[in-house]
Amino acid sequence: MAHRILIVDDSAAIRQCLRSSIELQKDLQVCGEAENGESAVARVKELTPDLVILDLQMPVMNGLDAARRIAQIAPHLPMLMFTMYSSEYLVTEARAAGIKDVFSKSAGVPDGLISAIQEILGSEGGSENASRNSAMTLTKATHPNA
Description:
Blueprint: E1 3-8, H1 12-23, E2 28-34, H2 37-47, E3 51-54, H3 63-73, E4 79-83, H4 88-96, E5 99-104, H5 111-121
Parallel strand pairs: 1-2, 1-3, 3-4, 4-5
């Protein structure tokens, strides 16, 4: 059975890019999408995903506030942040909000994001078109010692 992932980003193009990369993995599927933090909270309640990927800057409710609310209603639900912003402060705030790791959008969908999803969910990975062979690379937003 595939692990279910909720994608939360205000950009439809980013959501589609993430969906395409995730669905290349035989053991991962996107169960839904949301375009802001408030919708994300509602979708978590409705869809009960296995993992949530959140953007930081979104209208209505940002990713950190959404993560805090999601952590209250689903305390064991793992969350990752995929954002244009990267700093040690953001990583610290994200982790305090319940987010496991932060990845930068600056290089497209990074292999590290897919690897982190698989590691968190304990999935085996494997795809017909392995994402590591794509032109997309990882720029991890976390501090090496964090």
